[in-house]
Amino acid sequence: MSEPTPGSRPGRRRVLQGAAVLAGSQLAAPFLLSARGEVPIKIGMVDEMTGPASMLGTSEVQGARLAVEQINAKGGVLGRPLQLLVEDSASDTGVGVQKAIKLIDRDHVNVLFGDPNSGIAYAQTQVTNQKGVLNILPGAHTDPMTGKACKWNVFRICGTTSMDASAITGTLVRKFGKRWFMITPDYAYGHTLQAAFIRDLKKLGGTVEAVMVPQTTLDFTDTLIKAKLYKPQVLINNMYGNPQVNCMKQFLQFGMEKSIALGGAIFELEDVIATPAAAQTGWWDFEWWWNQPGVPHVAEFTAAIDKRFHVMPSARVWFGYVAVHSFRLAVEHSKSLDALKMARALEGMVLPPEVALQPGKVFYRKGDHQLMANIFVGEVHPPKGNKYNVFTPHKLVPGQDVAGDAVENGCHMTYPA
């Protein structure tokens, strides 16, 4: 199955063909492995392969697949190969929960990697906690999952919305001003991100008008007219996927870039690539960046992804890669597939450089199971050299500097007796 490149969205025929190939590979793999006398360790991934965040889901799966292939090429985990089973949530909470239950009850996976949609991921954590299955969230950002709704079996790789907002707010205020207009998707991710931005902006003496729209909104005409009338110094685009791209395009069509700065918490590489060059602008967070000269192992990881999928890796690719390696490390350190033992092994674990792929100490905080990685704050711009070189980081913000205290964030971790 050929993989969509970042910024593309597969058509229906392509999605169906890919699903058929994927299904075939999941059926064939156990027979091939058992023919060699090996019993695979099954790992499950429910991701958004169709829907508004399909570009992001595809990237997370790419990273997970590369990790599985590399681990198996080195002998697997505890002498057993890994088998990755992927299901499509189709951006639907009910479907995402059903797929999680299928992977756990029918396929007997030893870990579940959750959905990029925060609402779906949160519902899945209820299932995995009830069933006692290790749950690693590659890219669902809403705060409560490592805050007031934290669980002993749940670990998160991406930053929280509060972390992402705190990392960029000061930069936007210093560069452009304190009068903001904010466009936010009306669901769990948007709610916590908007609240975090408003909190941090008010601490700096700023004012904001915020408008929530359905997360699938594609026409932002009315909202952008409101923004022009408000005359902000900064427009914060909190959308994601195709809606974010459309908002960027319409911002440009209305000529708003002449008088209003643009920015926000996250502008995914996949979305930047899908945006016209003239609208590749603004100051944003990236949660990982592929062009880090001199940082150990980054170049070889980037080359491996390019060779396997013909793309430069995004943060989402890195999320999927880290998810699989986090499971591997948990198994190897605990020498067990017991969820409780693996969770204990992951608490406080520092990722090795070949997995962290960035400077500094990257670790799972014991108090809430949130990964403390760097947030890359910088400027999006038209391509320099190749179409993926569209971001220049200007500073790295360590995750622990903006994460807040685990208990103050509402996490009171409890474990089974």
Summarize the structure.
Helix content is 43%, strand content 17%.
Describe this structure in words.
The chain has 417 residues and is of the alpha/beta class. The protein has two domains: 12-159 and 294-373, Response regulator (Rossmann fold), CATH 3.40.50.2300; 162-291 and 375-402, 3-Layer(aba) Sandwich (Rossmann fold), CATH 3.40.50.2300. Helix content is 43%, strand content 17%. The strands form three sheets. It has a seven-stranded mixed beta sheet with strand order 7-6-8-9-10-13-14, sandwiched between helices. Helix 4 (118-131) links the parallel strand 3 (111-113) and strand 4 (134-137). Helix 11 crosses helix 12 (339-346). The longest helix has 24 residues, at 12-35. The chain is globular. Mean pLDDT is 91; it is low at 1-35.
Which labels suit this protein?
seven-stranded mixed sheet, alpha/beta, 43% helix, five-stranded parallel sheet, 14 helices, Rossmann fold
> What is the number of domains?
2
Order of helices and strands: HEHEHEHEEHEHEHEHEHEHHHHEEEEH
CATH superfamily of the largest domain: Response regulator
Instruction: Please state the CA-atom Rg, rounded to the nearest Å.
Output: 21 Å
Number of strands: 14
Assembly classification = single chain
Structural class per helix/strand content?
Answer: alpha/beta
What is the end-to-end distance? 45 Å
Q: Average pLDDT value? A: 91
Q: Which fold name fills CATH's third level, the topology of the largest domain?
A: Rossmann fold
- Report the portion of residues in β strands: 15-25%
Which spans have pLDDT < 50 for at least 5 consecutive residues?
1-35
CATH class of the largest domain: Alpha Beta
The residue fraction in helices comes out at 40-55%
Number of helices: 14
C-alpha geometry: globular
Task: Please list the strands of the largest sheet in the order they lie side by side.
Answer: 7-6-8-9-10-13-14
Outline the biggest β-sheet: 7 strands, mixed
Proper CATH architecture of the largest domain: 3-Layer(aba) Sandwich
